[in-house]
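Ticket #4471: structure output looks truncated?

Reporter: J.K.
Steps to reproduce: submitted the chain below (448 residues) through the standard prediction queue, then opened the result file.
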Amino acid sequence: MRLRVYSDVAEARRTVLRRVPFDEVATSPELEQGIRRIFGEALTPEQVVARILGDVRTRGDAALRDYAERIDGSRLESIEVPRAELDWAFAQISPELRSALETAQRQVREFHERQHKASWNQWTANGAVGQMVRPLQRVGLYAPGGRAIYPSTVIMAAVPARVAGVEEIVVCSPAGKDGQVSPLILAACRLCDVDRVFALGGAQAIGAMAYGTETVPRVDKILGPGNLFVVLAKRQVFGGVDIDQLPGPTEALVVADDSADPAAAAIDLLAQAEHDALASPVLITPSRELAERVNEEIERLLERLSRREIIEASMARNGGIVLTGSIEEAIDLANEYAPEHMCLLVRDAWSMLGRVRNAGGVFVGEACAEALGDYVVGPSHIMPTGGTARFSSALNVWDFVKIISIFGLNEQGVAELAPAAITLAEAEGFTAHAEAIRMRLGSAKRSQ
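Returned output as attached by the reporter:
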């Protein structure tokens, strides 16, 4: 299996670098068959999500139990996971795994503690202005638990929430056919001091957190990755509740020159491709020789990888190598693509960092494999995908706080600023606004 090489940048833009909205991705025959089996008719994913959300909003816990059985094959004895199960799961994991989780938690906490900002106010002759930074009271985190289990995702979301000062953290993660949430997810929740865990997955979990049910409390914000139905549900509930982003399949874009180690470039691409058949592994390089050697390494390395079938599907569907005229053009093309992960495998990579404008995260130099960032470096691995790195950021402390503005003019400030405000209010046709300001202006003049 080799990645297709594109020597024409214009063709690459039309194909491997083309952005397709996640809700326009063609559904598979298997997915369509599953929808008909569960709902008794042909529905689009958007229609499926709308029906589930409406049902959860109306029937609450009964709908959650119904969909857990119909979709996941899970008979839930209890929607909420007892605290004792979290303690048990944490106690059962091996010392080596416990130590690894603790290392990840420590690194993520230390990184985000450097980011936290405090409230501020500034007094001037005109009074005071400022901001109060307040943590959200309750957030809901979604932890995927289907074909792959991600205890690391719990750490990457729950730790920044705690650093921000969130009062209550709840987690939803799907139960298996045995009705149980993965012990690895529960162990991570216990380590991160999550307050409550619910055995819920899919759009129904998002609906439960957005609307609240008899058992699941309504949250202020929903965060975390998930499958197509989870992402569509987050989009549909937005407005009544906040969300972090609409994450799609993972992306790795490697920018490399002729100094790069072909094996390092190849394994970075393969590491992301093993996540999902919809993942996007892309190499952009000015070196045709490197492109050929990377493909040779891919063929060699694939032989010993356990998720080969998924990797090959990802490479065939969304992977490729794009040849450019220079490394500068390669980075410009990478900025246009705005990847989730950008790996800089170039000479003096730190000197090229300033050219990067759009990326969820940048991995500078060959030593820092992207896979390290998935676990233990510090920044959250929950990052913008689908080109949304043009305007959004990796999950961080600021996702868990809100800013309340402070207005505190004194008489001098009113006297100085009111005339301009009156003029603007009258220009907009708001005479009550203008009159409210005039009243304060009169009071300020009398007190002087």
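Triage note (M.O.): checked the attachment and the full token line is present. The first helix runs from residue 9 to 14.
Status: closed, working as intended.
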